[in-house]
């Protein structure tokens, strides 16, 4: 009985001990688990933080992009609206221009203005390098070419800009492809007929300085292309009839060559004026040199006469006058008269001397002065002026 109670008491003690150990073990494992969990949480946070920052930046960027998209969509809508309004205005203006160009007078005025603008862009000046609507009278009647382009050396070129454009305008105003082709062919036929009419006027006979051809100006490169596209041989056809087809793109380089020719003429005229002025200045300097030379010779002659007079006074007059002082008539002494030593320097520039004056220069007193002119200088002057030794 006692044994059984002892065993029961030991079991209770063991159970209590086991409970205590179990509780301690669980507490220790719990603390370890908390440490591990904290470490894993920190590691996870370290991994998630960059992702979180990236997601936040991405969200901010998406918001900014969305704002820009909304703004750009609004601006694009405004631009589309402006383009639509501009397109409507262009269509209205095109229709208005097309209707206006159907009138021959308006069409002709447009071609003339286009031609004048092209000529001015090329550097030519009206009434100097070209004339518009000049009237000519011949045995065949009165003629008024649209433009006369003046060339150097008295040459001229006549230009006509009255090309019929109604068929081409009709082609652009229709959407029917077959109708367009028909209008284009009609336009080419109109250009051919105008070539024949213009060739029959013989504009080149109105001015003797004109070459035997006339320039037919089409006011648009597109019209020029259409005409040759419908009839590729049209250019040769016009050339055989002494007509040269030209568009703005073809005419501008040719006119710039004309403008350059006028510039060369102007430079040549300026050079001629400079040469004439130089000759006049040279002649005047030569005349001035002659005057200076004569003046120098006159001064030299005057100095010689003065020195002779001084010598005569000293030897003839002053000798007797000084005897009054020796006789006690007066105490004042008479000063000596000094001769003039300096002589006028004569001009030794060959361009300002006559040939006969150059010959006498060698025999003058200046030739004896080595500082002014020596024998070699005289020989050099002879070579420059073409005079031979006498």
Structure description:
With 390 residues, this protein is an alpha/beta fold. Among the domains are: 104-246, Trna Endonuclease, Chain: A, domain 1; 270-341; 345-390, no CATH class. It contains nine helices and seven strands; from the N terminus they run ααβββββααβααβααα. The protein has helices at residues 2-101, 104-121, 166-172, 177-201, 221-230, 234-240, 248-326, 355-363, 375-385, and strands at 130-132, 136-138, 141-143, 147-150, 156-160, 214-217, 243-246. Strands 1-4-5-6-7 form a five-stranded mixed beta sheet. The radius of gyration is 57 Å and the shape is flat.
CATH class term of the domain at 104-246 = Alpha Beta
Oligomer: single chain
Q: How much strand content do the residues show?
A: 5-15%
> How is the CATH topology of the domain at 104-246 named?
Trna Endonuclease, Chain: A, domain 1
Rounded mean pLDDT is 76
The order of strands across the largest sheet is 1-4-5-6-7
Return Rg in Å: 57 Å
User: N- to C-terminal separation?
Assistant: 183 Å
User: Structural class, from secondary structure content?
Assistant: alpha/beta
Counting DSSP E segments of at least 2 residues, the number of strands comes to: 7
Into which percent range does the helicity of residues fall?
Answer: 55-70%
Order of helices and strands: HHEEEEEHHEHHEHHH
Taking the sheet with the most strands, its summary is: 5 strands, mixed
Provide a count of the helices: 9
Low-confidence segments, given as residue ranges, are: 365-375, 384-390
From the spread of the alpha carbons, the general shape counts as flat
**Proper CATH architecture of the domain at 104-246:** 3-Layer(aba) Sandwich
